[in-house]
Amino acid sequence: MAQEFQAGNKRIKPDEMLVLLGRYQMMPQFLRGLIIDEAIAGIECTEEEKGAAIAQLEAQYQLTTPEAKEAWLKSQNLTPEDLEAIATRPLKLEKYKQETWAHKVESYFLARKPYLDQVRYSLIRTKDLGLANELYFRIEGGEQSFAEIAKQYSQGVEANTGGLLGPVPIRQPHPLISQILSVSKPGQLWPPRALAEWFVIVRLEQLIPAQLDETMRRRLIDEMFETWINEQIKQMGPLRAIETNEPE
To answer: How high is the pLDDT of residue 146?
Structure first.
C-alpha cells in the first residue's frame, strides 16, 4: 500500500514532497544535513559532554520539567534519543571541523592573507577631470585637507565622512582602487584616476594586516568547511525518487 504524508487536513504524496522541498528552497539545507550526519557519524562525545549539551538545549527551549520536555518532544515528533542527537550535533560537528581542517589553517591563512588584510582609505570622486586635478593639487599643496575637500566636492556617500572609508578588506573596493591601495604606503596620495564615469583621488590612511589569532583561526576553519560542504552538495545533486523492487 502506497504511503502518504499528512499535515492537518493536507495529504502529500512522496513525489510531491520533493517538489515542495525545492519550492520552499529547503533542498540545500536538507542535503547539507545528510552530509553532516554522515561526516560526524564516527565522532564520539563523552558522557559529560553529552550531559552538558542536553542541559544547554533544555535551557534554550525552557524544558525545565519532565512534562515540558515530553510536550516539546511530542510537538516536534521527536524521541529522547533524537533530543540527544540534536543536542550533541553541534559539538560533534565542531570536533569534525577541528580534526579535518585545524592542521591546514596556517597554509590557508597565508594563501588568503591578501584578501584578509584590511585598509582605511580616503576617497574623492567627481565626474569633472579638471576639478579632480585642481582638488588633487590643493590637497598636495596643503591648501585644504582631504576631509574638507571630500565633504565639499565628493559626489558619493564618502562625502558624509570626509572621504574616509573602512576598515574594509583590501580586496573589497573596486579592483582599480584595490590595486592602488595594495601598492600604497600610509599617507600616499594618488593623482586622479579614471574609474567608469568617475575620476577618483585615493589616499591610503592605514593598513591593518590580518593576524592569525583564535578568532581568525575559527573563521578560516569555518570557511574551509563551507567550501567543502558546498562542493559535496553539488556532487550529490538534488534529491530524487528512484524505483525499487521492494513491495509497497
So the answer is: 98
- The pLDDT of residue 213 is 97
56 phi-psi bin (left φ>0, alpha ψ -120 to 50, beta other): alpha
User: What are the 10-residue block averages of pLDDT along the chain, 248 residues in total?
Assistant: 80 87 91 96 96 96 95 95 96 98 98 95 98 98 97 97 97 96 97 98 98 97 98 88 65
| Element housing 96 (H / E) | helix 80-101
Q: Name the residue type at position 98.
A: Q
d(CA 147, CA 204): 13
Listed in order, strand segments (DSSP E) in 141-197 are 164-169, 189-195
What is the model's pLDDT at position 30? 93
Tell me whether residue 113 is in a domain. Answer: no
d(CA 233, CA 41): 18
One-letter amino acid of 84: E
One domain, residues 177 and 142 = yes
Helix, strand, coil fractions of the chain, as percent rounded to 5? 55, 15, 25
The predicted pLDDT at position 245 comes to 64
Contact criterion met (CB below 8 Å) for 238 and 165: no
Instruction: Give the CATH number of the domain where residue 196 resides.
Output: 3.10.50.40
The answer to the question of residue 41 being in a domain is yes
Domain hosting 204: range is 118-208
Specify the number of domains making up the chain. 2
Shared-domain flag, residues 88 and 172: no
Residues 191 and 143 in one domain: yes
